[in-house]
Task: structure prediction
Amino acid sequence: MPKPRERGWPAAPEALPAVAVDNHTHLDAIAPYAQGVRDRLRVAEARRRGHEVPAGADDMDLVEVPIRVPSVADVVADAAAVGVTRMVQVGCDLDAVRWTDDLLNETAGTAVGGALLGAVAIHPNEAPLHGLGPDAAEDRLEIGPDGLLPTLEPRHATSLDDAIAQVAAVVRANPRIRAIGETGMDLFRTGPRGVEIQRASFRAHVALAKELDLALQIHDRDAHQEVIDVLLADGAPERTVFHCFSGDAEMARIAREQGWYLSFAGPVSFAANDDLRAALRVMPLDHVMVETDAPFLTPHPYRGRPNAPYLLPHTVRTVAKVSGMPLDEVCRVTSSTAQRVYGDW
Ligand SMILES: [Zn+2]
Result:
């Protein structure tokens, strides 16, 4: 069994030669994720040392494992130390939308606030749960192609229309929120009944981004054609970004033609993803951005360990290598693209 330290936070990478922007991260999820990793490792370590730990125990005081649960200020400082001085915080369920709004308001005018802009939406995997209607109950839930039964949370008692209206109200009142996202479609987690609700939700978010002249951040999982169809039929917002782009060179050509932006996350560094690297080579660098999607999708060679914006340099270096551009040029161009898409920080 690996030592706990080896499953925790990776060491900080070498600092970038110029500043970079993480254009998609979930600060609300980083601390809970780290907490979860720490709890699991405490149990594993206690068992390794021969302690008896009841199944399901998640609060092990028997051993301490050295995994930090960082505050937002810690995350921002760690990122700045390696050149990642700005980021877009994405809140994509009703609780996270409020969390994002509060964070941006509470940090306004501080150094931490200066590093942050926001994006909010009802995620495609959330939309069907809101869309079940006022009598939503566990027995109406649908198991998705991923084989998992979703969990209903108190926030899902709000109807989808009301949830999207709440997103719109938050965006209108907060000038630091500059994107609608992540929205889109996800055929991996959603079964056929949910897909129609998901499509309707996506269309409503597209309309909102256009109405407010904001950027759109798209989540597309196993749904390339469905997402493209909606964008072409309804008309894509001026600044449309595929977050954690997962398509191939052919799809990148469509994006290039349409003037859409592709944001690359940790998977561009995974050995199996030649398609993604081919897509990156198709795109003009001024329509490419970089992101962590933290705490998920930790770049190679740290797959499976927690992620945070300070690990973005690994992805920036991969983009430089694949596109054959100097590293400082990639930092400069992707940063100015982020500024063009989301406005000034
Ligand atoms: Zn995300």
